[in-house]
């Protein structure tokens, strides 16, 4: 709606005009003023869209009033009325960017039509301005996204010719060029924000990027993106050529603790930072980024607010395997036989190990995620189902390992999906196998070093050996002897990897009293002897 101001020093004319407009048109508000100065007071107090003013008035004239509006850059359209047809008034009216210039006496209908036409033009201009503003905001948003996408491509090793790279950088207004000395900085979001939903984390990350740019802005150009591992990655180069004699690393090392301090102070959050040495851009950037990424993936999540310099890191020691994840019976074996309570306890056992002794790293989270995903997927497909049949939202959010930033998140997902599989598959599904299969497997696990022959097992479950053998094959698709052999070999491999027991001791634990026979069976299964297998595992 339009807010109109009528200005005239003749009260009768002003009152008559206001009455006519209020009666014949629908404006949000019609104000009146008896002088230019009074009109100024009104436009400074109330939002006005259109002013209709006489040119000749005592004190401030209509032309002076329009000039005042122009100088103040107010979004107001002026319509000038004058009883003088001299060209000089029309000229001055044009200089003030007046919307219209009408000669007195003017017909009221003509004036109203002019006001309505001016209102339409004003509305169109404002809509165009809003549209342009939105277009600029969209362009800026897309520009930031495109800049981040290009940086991520370069960090992941995408090759561009110098000409193409220069063209892309110029097009996206990126203040970097080939040959610039640049460093890579990785930031890991930590503490309470990791418990939030992804949208809240994204807002926090947006704030972190802004604070980082503010802290580094006096000395460095900053180019940012978010990588596939959920870390914030920055390319940094020193701004002023006259500062190149100042050690770049020294300046950066002084600013990063300030950055961590401001993140804590303003966002009540924590970040860990890894920074590289300065290298010639873009040569070697992908390699440096990979080194920083691998270092982050090995850092425990429980160790927070770290500041690590990539150039002074000691050589990395080989990772030790997660024992509880691969210890027989595995999660897959427990689910296959419908041992849901045992499977849940095994998950608790696995995550206890993952939460202890600095094992809560991104690398170990990935190992657990992929192992559980493979087991869950196998069981679902084994029962003739698709993933979507069993794992519904929000459980499907775990289809990307990078989703899990903490042990707590991964544990919650693993438990939820296990429960979903149990609900969807357990009632009458193949996974149930019958109680006797469960009893058989439990007996084998407890008596592996003793007598696990078909006769001993049949006596335990009170079934005829022939019936037990046929039924087990029907239920599992595998001969009982094949299962015992496979279980023994998997248990042997686990013990060779994770214990210092001698070969003959391991053979005895698995029920083989004659060690050479055990060695022969093991080599037949794995194509290497137990000694060779242990040696290969130690080298890894």
Rounded to the nearest angstrom, the distance between the terminal CA atoms is 76 Å
Global Rg: 39 Å
Number of helices: 22
Share of helix, binned: 55-70%
Uncertain regions spanning at least 5 consecutive residues: none
The proportion of residues in beta strands is 5-15%
The major beta sheet can be summarized as: 6 strands, mixed
Q: How many strand segments?
A: 11
Overall mean confidence score, pLDDT: 86
Subcellular location: Cytoplasm
Main location: cytoplasm
Modified residues (4-aspartylphosphate): 54
Protein name: Response regulator
Keywords:
single chain; 540 residues; alpha/beta; six-stranded mixed β-sheet; 22 helices; 56% helix; DNA-binding
Provide a brief overview of the structure.
InterPro entries: CheY-like_superfamily, Homeodomain-like_sf, HptR, HTH_AraC, HTH_AraC-typ_CS, Sig_transdc_resp-reg_receiver, Tscrpt_reg_AraC-type_HTH. This is Response regulator. With 540 residues, the protein is an alpha/beta fold.
Task: Describe the overall structure.
With 540 residues, the protein is α/β, with parallel strands linked by helices. The chain contains 22 helices and eleven strands. It has helices spanning 11-24, 36-45, 62-71, 87-95, 108-155, 162-171, 198-216, 248-267, 285-297, 323-326, 331-336, 340-354, 362-382, 387-390, 407-425, 435-446, 454-461, 465-476, 480-498, 503-509, 515-526, 530-539, and strands at 3-7, 29-33, 50-54, 77-82, 100-103, 181-190, 220-226, 232-238, 270-275, 279-280, 307-309. The strands form two sheets. Strands 6, 7, 8, 9, 10 and 11 form a six-stranded mixed β-sheet that branches. Strand 3 (50-54), helix 3 and strand 4 form a beta-alpha-beta unit. The longest helix is centred in the first third of the chain and has 48 residues, at 108-155. The mean pLDDT is 86. This is Response regulator. It is found in: Cytoplasm.
């Amino acid at each position: 709606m339009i807010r109109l101001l009528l200005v005239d020093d003749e009260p009768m004319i002003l009152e008559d005009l206001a009455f006519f407009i209020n009666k014949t048109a629908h404006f949000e508000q019609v104000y009146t003023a008896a002088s230019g100065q009074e009109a100024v007071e009104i436009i400074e107090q109330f939002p006005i869209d259109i002013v209709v003013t006489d040119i000749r008035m005592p004190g401030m004239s209509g032309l002076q009033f329009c000039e005042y509006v122009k100088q103040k850059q107010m979004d107001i359209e002026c319509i000038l009325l004058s009883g003088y047809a001299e060209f000089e008034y029309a000229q001055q009216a044009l200089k003030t960017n007046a919307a219209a210039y009408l000669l007195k006496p003017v017909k009221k209908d003509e004036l109203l039509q002019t006001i309505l036409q001016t209102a339409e033009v004003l509305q169109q201009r404002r809509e165009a301005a809003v549209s342009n503003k939105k277009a600029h905001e969209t362009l800026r948003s897309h520009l930031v996204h495109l800049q981040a996408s290009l940086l991520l491509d370069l960090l992941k090793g995408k090759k561009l010719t110098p000409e193409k790279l220069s063209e892309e950088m110029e097009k996206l207004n990126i203040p970097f060029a080939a040959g610039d000395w640049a460093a890579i900085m990785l930031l890991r979001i930590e503490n309470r924000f990791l418990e939030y939903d992804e949208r809240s984390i994204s807002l926090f990350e947006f704030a972190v990027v802004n604070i980082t740019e503010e802290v580094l802005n006096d000395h460095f150009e900053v180019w940012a993106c978010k990588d596939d591992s959920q870390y914030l990655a920055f390319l940094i180069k020193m701004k002023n050529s006259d500062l190149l004699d100042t050690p770049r690393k020294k300046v950066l090392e002084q600013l990063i603790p300030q950055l961590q301090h401001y993140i804590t102070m303003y966002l009540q959050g924590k970040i860990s930072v890894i920074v590289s040495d300065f290298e010639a851009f873009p040569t070697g950037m992908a390699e440096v980024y990979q080194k920083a990424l691998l270092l982050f993936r090995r850092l425990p999540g429980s160790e927070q607010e770290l500041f690590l310099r990539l150039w002074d890191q000691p050589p990395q020691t080989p990772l030790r395997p997660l024992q509880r994840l691969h210890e027989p019976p595995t999660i897959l074996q427990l689910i296959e036989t419908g041992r849901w309570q045992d499977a849940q306890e095994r998950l608790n056992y696995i995550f206890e190990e993952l939460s202890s002794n600095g094992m809560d790293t991104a690398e170990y989270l990935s190992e657990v995620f992929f192992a559980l995903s493979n087991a869950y997927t196998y069981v679902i497909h084994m029962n003739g189902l698709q993933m979507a049949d069993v794992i519904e939202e929000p459980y499907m959010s775990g289809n990307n390992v990078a989703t899990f930033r903490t042990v707590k998140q991964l544990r919650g997902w693993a438990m939820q999906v296990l429960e979903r599989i149990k609900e969807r598959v357990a009632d009458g599904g193949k996974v149930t196998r019958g109680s006797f299969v469960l009893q058989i497997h439990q007996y084998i696990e407890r008596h592996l070093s003793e007598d696990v022959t078909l006769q001993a097992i049949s006596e335990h479950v009170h079934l005829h050996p022939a019936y037990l053998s046929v039924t087990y094959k029907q239920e599992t698709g595998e001969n009982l002897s094949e299962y015992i052999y496979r279980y023994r070999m998997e248990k042997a491999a686990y013990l060779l990897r994770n214990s210092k027991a001698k070969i003959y001791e391991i053979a005895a634990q698995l029920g083989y009293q004659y060690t050479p026979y055990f060695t022969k069976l093991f080599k037949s299964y794995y194509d290497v002897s137990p000694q060779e297998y242990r040696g290969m595992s130690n080298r890894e």
